[in-house]
Amino acid sequence: MSKYYFPLFCLIVSIFLKLFQSLDVEILYFFNSFFFSEFFLSHITELGNAFFIFAFLIPFLCVLSLVVKKINYVSPSTIIFPGLILGLFVQLVKNILNFPRPGGIEGINIQFAEPVFQSLSFPSGHAASIFFVGFWWMRLAFAGGFTALRYIISLLVIIIASTRIIIGAHWFSDVLASFAITMLFIEILNKWKIDLLLNKNIYLDVISIFLILGSIYSIFNFEVFDHI
Fold first, then answer.
1. Which of 2, 14, 28, 127 can bridge 175 by disulfide, Cβ–Cβ 3.0-4.6 Å?
2. With contact defined as beta carbons under 8 Å apart, do 119 and 101 qualify?
3. In sequence order, what DSSP letters do the residues of 16-60 get, joined into one string?
4. DSSP H helical segments within the chain, as ranges?
5. Which tens digits make up the pLDDT trace of 165-184?
6. Contacts of 123 (CB under 8 A, 6+ apart)
């Protein structure tokens, strides 16, 4: 039960920041002070885009877990299907609450990266996606050890998620809520041993391959990076 305490605390803090937005604004200004290149930050932040994650990151991590014998193999379906459930939940919450983004608030004087959206702020879909894939994959792949690699992956995940605030796409509270929801979801998956159900199901892996191919097709044929 103690594993739920920190994510729940983070969720409470994110809600508090939403209720008292002046503090969230100050945190936004702090993060935006690191805005140094729209080109660079726009590309880094899209590493959290669900289409990019499905098309490239998940296949890479799964192949990595297959070829490196010292870590556990993680099948695509083990990440993709729970990820879809989490993504649908996050989108549902975003649409129900429909909080304004920084770009939808008058008087917010920061640098924005294009495109600038005005609504559907809480929680951040990009942040939830990269948090889930990074931390869930590490939970499954690393039974023990690899401490340095854990820190490196965790740092990269946090940097990618933080760019959502730096470019003005989200508030700090949005990203913090995404972290909290994701970690709670991972603990539930771990408790129910979902990975044992999904990790060796060949039929789900076949479906996963089609979803990966569909994501690759979408990236090269549609403007998916401007609308997720």
1. 127
2. yes
3. HHHHSHHHHHHHHHHHHTT---HHHHHHHHGGG-HHHIIIIIHHH
4. 5-19, 21-32, 38-45, 50-52, 58-67, 76-97, 125-141, 147-166, 172-191, 194-198, 202-221
5. 999 999 999 999 999 999 99
6. 14, 90, 93, 94, 174, 175, 177, 178, 181
Taking residue 175's Cβ as centre, other Cβ atoms within 10 Å add up to: 26
Q: What is the pLDDT of residues 3-15, one digit of tens each?
A: 899 999 999 999 9
Query: How far apart, in whole angstroms, are the C-alpha atoms of residue 122 and residue 176?
Result: 10
CA distance 78 to 208: 9
- d(CA 190, CA 26) in angstroms, rounded, equals 36
Q: Is the pTM of this model over 0.70?
A: yes
* Cα-Cα-Cα-Cα dihedral sign, residues 4, 156, 138, 178: positive
Rounded Cα gap, residues 91 and 144, in angstroms: 34
Report the C-alpha gap between 191 and 172 in whole angstroms. Answer: 29
